[in-house]
Amino acid sequence: MEKKMHLVPYLVEEVVQQANEIPQGVDLIQAPKMWSKGYTGKSVTIAVLDTGCDIEHPDLSHAITGGRNFTDDDGGNPSIYRDYNGHGTHVAGTIAAKENESGVVGVAPDVNLLILKVLAGKEGSGAYEWITNAINYAVDQKVDIITMSLGGPDKATSLHQAIKRAVKENILVVCAAGNNGDNNHQTSEFSYPAGYNEVISVGAINFERKSSYFTNSNNEIDLVAPGENILSSIPDGKYASYSGTSMAAPHVAGSLALIKNQTEDQFERKFSEPELYSQLIKRTLPLGHPNSLEGNGLVYLTTPDLLEEQARRLQVRTNRRMGWF
Fold first, then answer.
1. pLDDT of 230 higher than 70
2. Does domain 5-322 have CATH number 3.40.50.200?
3. Quick one: which of 118, 142, 144, 318 is 20 to 30 A from 260 by CA?
4. Where exactly are the structural domains of the chain?
5. pTM of the predicted model, to two decimals?
6. Do residues 245 and 227 lie in contact, with contact meaning Cβ atoms separated by under 8 Å?
């Protein structure tokens, strides 16, 4: 089977044996402030389509509720979804690493993870058919969110149809935009499935909120998230800092779990996929980059609170000028 789908390229910046911190990216998007309100991703299931996962990692074992192998690794045994690359474990950690006073903490530390292995071997390559089958499986399992930090240069009808089916079933599909950027926002670089309109395409910024030099630019970018020097879990109980839009996408997937918790708690009803997408975009901050690089801006979970505070201060200043108090 021809393997045209690959990991979105990424850089391994540093590997460490131990960690004990909230990663900078998780803090930058304001996830801890959502936890303080009681929103931690509980009862939300995210399907991670990647290279598998280290299911025994101390930061992740609590979160994994199941998994399946769609590749030819381990003889194609569907019940073995080991991560021979490290990428899938890193993505899973950014989403769901547990707050346990050691290691790292993910954006949504109480979320459930369904691990769907669609990329094989140490190099992390896969077939469109594997990914299509995994998306359809995730839909059948009634997950809430699908995240994919992978891509290929070609469109595939079956893959696109599977994504459309997922969205129709009110499943949010998050994809890394790709790392083929040429540092020129006027040119377009597309990777699929991120290039499909139905998905949420995520570009990358650094901790100074500058656009990452490698991030793809095109008219399908929805928003950006931290994607440089992102500390997260890797196999064998270790940790590493990676860079790439692969690292930005799980920040958004985890954020959607928190947003789903918050909005459905406040409105006391289930939200549709378009409604949750709208709530996500309401929680972005424009950074001043061209739309082809940042879409609607940086995911910033407390944007509604920020705007409310700004409106309150403006009203106070207006009242004072009018002599009302």
1. yes
2. yes
3. 118
4. 5-322
5. 0.93
6. yes
